[in-house]
Amino acid sequence: MSDSLPSRAWKATRTMGALAYYMGVLPMLRIPTLLPFVFSTPFTILFILFVTGRGAAFLYGIAGAVTMVTAQQGLFLGADLTNYRIEHKFQYMVVASPVSSLTYMFSVALSELAFALPALAVLLAITAYMVPSISALAILEIVVVAVLTWMTTSSIGFFLSTYVLNTRTAFLTVSFISIILSVLPPVFYPLQLIPAPFRWVAELVPTTHASVLVQTAVNLPSAPFQVLVSWVALPAFTVVFLLLALFKAKWRES
Amino acid sequence: MPSIIEASALVKYYKNEKKPAVDDLDLSVTGGRLFTLLGRNGAGKTTFLRIATTQLLQTSGSVSVFGLDAQREAKLIRRRIAVAPQEAKPLWSLNPFDHVVLALMMRGESFSASSAKADRVLEKLDLLEFRKVHSEDLSGGLRQRILIAMTIACDAEILFLDEPTIGLDPLGRRRVWDELIRLKREEGRTIVLTTHYMDEAEALSDELVIIDKGRALVRGTPSDVRASHLKSRLRVDVSAGFSLGELESYGKVTTAGNLSRLFVEERVADEISREAVKRRATVSISPVTLDDVFVDIVGSRIEEGEEAVTNE
């Protein structure tokens, strides 16, 4: 007898929870010493901005770190999934099971997010300390942006993982894309610093919009029109990359 | 019993490969039985398994599982099968108990049901004492048993096991064998196995197929396969006391390590043994094994292939 829709939804949620717990939360709890390694880069940049810039530069650093932490964790998904597929052959077990590619992607993405949560909590605490006037709505805004960024980069990571042929290439590719997405574009600095004729290039990068929105939430100046553009662009990027992951990722090999 | 898996004219070419990994393969697997694919490395066993388990798309031909097309109706098949891939590794920082619970919860079972089942399966595979030990701290054989536990714990109707006993010690292998036989007899599961171990194929299989270069060469029960090749012959192993020329006068001689080996009729075996007694030479005479049949069938194809290459 086939299950009803609520029953199937509950089972899918439980599956997702189990995969996220066993692949992310549990390893993190058992080996918490991994956390500093995971977040060394965004916190190092934040530290440099704190020492050299202070004031507004530090707030740009906070916005950049929030964006980088979430983007990086989404991209790490690509490297980890490649590892699970090629080294552990775990993905072969998953493909030949009732778990769908989307469920698997979100489950492992959630497991990656588990590693990001402590860093995000620290960043939000610093933000609340540095910007005492920050509203609950602004904090909610930061959370929403972080979730959209994580979904976008997780989709990119998942898509890549199904095409990469070995784990070494996967880790190198992810490191390279991480720089393209979270260091070069205006993630840790204002968009206005890029000469106007070239700004459109930065607009093509989803993390630019994520950072613009977080910068606005922490009371850094942004053009109202740019904020509007970013609120449209970031969810649009999320949808596009989700569709790419859903329809163009290679779940079955050919 | 009806066929539960059917492959018809199955062909698979991998990208940039000129030779097919599976070449016009036809085979069927009967439900409720243990079916073994035997073959050398690269014979096409794993490729077939990956197509049948909906992980890999074929180039042409078809595979149906439960009467469902593996290419078009994969989702329906996946609910009813479980796979232990070849050379898989457990996940880091998880213990055997975690692995089995994860495998069951992936299939929608609750934590409490999964936990109870996990302990039962771990006990059957002698893993209970290691249930809380991280997989990276376990030996290769124990890690391999975790993967088997993850697969057999599932309520799947067909279990696909790709070289499941590689790296297991003899007792561990027997434990796995016992459990596979129990699953088949008591729970009516269908088990599809690939292996290089002839004794394993002989001990477990209800039916087997020998695959080479992507083609099925022989199929049947182990005794049928033995009977259909090297018919009514005996294996004679000679360690010393006979020159090669003398042995060749009895039949074709092959080498097996330090031994010279012949497959001969009972009358000739008797003649060789009497001659050996006279010479105080050591010979051993035994029935033909599946290993002999495999070497005979696949080995002669290798020789034919080499001759063809030489003649070109």
Care to describe what's here?
The complex is a heterodimer of chains A (254) and B (312). Chain A has 254 residues and is mostly helical. Chain A has one domain. Helix content of chain A is 77%, strand content 0%. In chain A, helix 4 (55-86) runs antiparallel to helix 8 (167-182). The radius of gyration of chain A is 19 Å and the shape is globular. The model of chain A has no long low-confidence stretch (mean pLDDT 90). Chain B is 39% helix and 26% strand. Chain B has eleven helices and 14 strands. Mean pLDDT of chain B is 90; it is low at 306-312. Chain B has a six-stranded mixed β-sheet, with helices on both faces. Chain B has a four-stranded antiparallel β-sheet with strand order 2-1-4-5. Chain B has a four-stranded antiparallel β-sheet with strand order 12-13-11-14. The relative contact order of chain B is 0.13. Chain B is an alpha/beta fold and 312 residues long. Chain B has helices at residues 45-52, 74-78, 96-105, 111-124, 140-152, 170-187, 198-204, 222-228, 244-248, 266-279, 290-311, and strands at 3-12, 22-30, 34-39, 60-65, 68-69, 81-84, 158-162, 190-195, 207-212, 215-220, 234-238, 253-256, 259-264, 283-287. The longest helix of chain B has 22 residues, at 290-311. Chain A binds chain B through residues 11-12, 14-15, 18-19, 22-23, 26-27, 30-31, 84, 87-90, 92-99, 252-254, and chain B through 15, 50, 53-57, 74-75, 78-79, 81-94, 98, 101-103, 105-108, 110-111, 134, 150-151, 154, 160.
